Amino acid sequence: MIAETIKSILNSILEDERIETIITSETKKQIEIWINELVSYIAELEKNGYLEIEWLSDLAIEIIKSINEAVTSKI
């Protein structure tokens, strides 16, 4: 569940039209590959009990804030 939430968040950021003004389609494809690899590692950590939902929620919020600020500053 946590891994899929992270994947959903990161993919939604990549789907934002503003991203296309910053990165090339080739870079976007590389990021999509990285997201899939990251999610598999996170799923393994979750399965083994190393991740907690509260911790992840706080981290996800900080990541989204940082990415939104970076995207907004580039536009």
Would you give an account of this structure?
The chain has 75 residues and is mainly α. The protein has one domain (2-74). Helices cover 79% and strands 0% of the residues. It has helices at residues 2-15, 25-47, 53-74. Helix 1 (2-15) runs parallel beside helix 3 (53-74). The longest helix has 23 residues, at 25-47. The protein starts with a helix and ends with a helix. The model has no long low-confidence stretch (mean pLDDT 78).
Write the SSE topology:
Blueprint: H1 2-15, H2 25-47, H3 53-74
Helix pairs in contact: 1-2, 1-3
Keywords:
single chain; 75 residues; mainly alpha; 0% strand
Give the radius of gyration: 13 Å
Globally, the shape reads: flat
By DSSP (H or I, 4+ residues per run), the number of helices equals 3
- Give the distance, in angstroms, between the N- and C-terminal Cα atoms: 33 Å
Structural class: mainly alpha
Overall mean confidence score, pLDDT: 78
Short description:
The protein has helices at 2-15, 25-47, 53-74. The chain is mostly helical. It has one domain (2-74).
